[in-house]
Amino acid sequence: GNSVTQMEGPVTLSEEAFLTINCTYTATGYPSLFWYVQYPGEGLQLLLKATKADDKGSNKGFEATYRKETTSFHLEKGSVQVSDSAVYFCALSDRRNTGFQKLVFGTGTRLLVSP
Amino acid sequence: SQTIHQWPATLVQPVGSPLSLECTVEGTSNPNLYWYRQAAGRGLQLLFYSVGIGQISSEVPQNLSASRPQDRQFILSSKKLLLSDSGFYLCAWSTEAGNQPQHFGDGTRLSIL
Questions:
Q1: B83-98 pLDDT, tens per residue?
Q2: Residue B5: its chain A contacts at CB < 8 A?
Q3: What is the model's pLDDT at position A100?
Q4: Interface test with A, best of B44, B88, B90 (most A CBs within 10 A)
Q5: Looking at chain A, which residue has its C-alpha nearest residue B51?
Q6: pLDDT tens across A90-101, in order?
């Protein structure tokens, strides 16, 4: 079945450091890929998405490119801030035969940014 | 614009008591609706989803049930809570169209004593 694998956390960085959070997936067909962010005590917010190979999703300085050849969707940011501290989830869509779309989530990667 | 509301935000319940968590969506019609549970420090587990009024699908066997009495209302229930039901419960919605993102509520933190 479809699955998403994320790097183990926590990822600990100093402010202004470069961020990469790895995400690889296994899927049949051509799923859409998403990154969600969860701040402490809150729900998940959609951070960015990509719907086909070579698409680049971007938002708030974060970027991720849909790489079909390596089945990856790594999240990057050039200069992190303390306010970026959160848990980041990679996810893919899994469209069922009934037309219903289910999201398959990775286990999440906690990012801690210190001043 | 579309919004999603969950309540209550936090809940402390004794073992064996009933549960009712409510989720409503505004600004869209005929959404797909979802209930997830997130155990402490872990990922999300899909519990139920619904593609229409009265249509509920369960992903995992458990002590919980879900209902959709109206198009934009999704309710998570239990007749008797277990300690293992503790967690962070998230409601989400998406459009019917394929490969679209899901949009999440702020969650309910449920503690069972």
A1: 999 999 999 999 876 6
A2: none
A3: 66
A4: B44
A5: A100
A6: 999 876 555 567
